[in-house]
């Protein structure tokens, strides 16, 4: 599915609102000012996701994965390459820079950051779109980008699409680049876009 310019503008506006609240939540938790640059939003079939992700992450990636359910259901991922994950953990805590064999403290910090980002973002989506989501506990994985995408392709037979939200975090003057991916089946993607169009229409009437 290719988003129209109007749909893309509406999704970008919604994501901007969600990310500004997410940054505030993360700043409050860490005691550091966290800014999130204007996100880059696009939609792809799963088979075309790998080159698109290459604009934000490469090689080994740290992935925080959360499954969400409800009228719109799917998988949400926060992806950071290992260097970016190391920098983010180092900036936000004294847990030490993580590696592919990162310690328990660094893993805990990264999982908590992902938890905050995903829950805040999906929570704002739910509130504004008037869609009730349920969430599973997020899980942290360290794997290659190809293996992560392979698990998506194997995980279900339904034709699925990915909403890719590229983001740049600025923490204490340093930039960390990562992205959030929402993988949705055709039915859920249609419902999500319809909810966004309804939200945009309500916003213009208020």
Automatic annotation (TrEMBL):
<keyword id="KW-0145">Chemotaxis</keyword>
<protein>
    <submittedName>
        <fullName>Chemotaxis protein CheC--inhibitor of MCP methylation</fullName>
    </submittedName>
</protein>
<dbReference type="GO" id="GO:0016787">
    <property type="term" value="F:hydrolase activity"/>
</dbReference>
<dbReference type="GO" id="GO:0006935">
    <property type="term" value="P:chemotaxis"/>
</dbReference>
<dbReference type="InterPro" id="IPR028976">
    <property type="entry name" value="CheC-like_sf"/>
</dbReference>
<dbReference type="InterPro" id="IPR050992">
    <property type="entry name" value="CheZ_family_phosphatases"/>
</dbReference>
<keyword id="KW-0378">Hydrolase</keyword>
């Amino acid at each position: 599915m290719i988003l129209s310019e109007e749909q893309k503008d509406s999704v970008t506006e919604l994501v901007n609102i969600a990310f500004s609240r997410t940054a505030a939540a993360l700043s409050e938790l860490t005691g550091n000012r966290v800014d999130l640059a204007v996100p880059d939003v696009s939609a792809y079939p799963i088979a075309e996701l790998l080159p698109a992700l290459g604009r934000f992450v490469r090689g080994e990636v740290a992935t925080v994965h959360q499954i969400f359910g409800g009228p719109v259901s799917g998988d949400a991922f926060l992806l950071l390459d290992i260097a970016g994950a190391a920098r983010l953990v180092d900036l936000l805590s004294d847990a030490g820079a993580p590696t592919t064999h990162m310690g328990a403290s660094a893993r805990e910090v990264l999982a908590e950051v992902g938890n905050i980002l995903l829950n805040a973002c999906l929570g704002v989506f739910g509130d504004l779109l008037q869609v009730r989501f349920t969430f599973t506990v997020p899980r942290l994985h360290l794997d290659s980008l190809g293996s992560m995408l392979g698990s998506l392709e194997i995980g279900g037979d339904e034709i699925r699409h990915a909403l890719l939200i590229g983001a740049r975090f600025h923490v204490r003057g340093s930039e960390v680049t990562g992205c959030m991916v929402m993988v949705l089946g055709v039915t859920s993607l249609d419902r999500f876009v319809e909810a966004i169009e309804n939200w945009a229409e309500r916003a213009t009437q208020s």
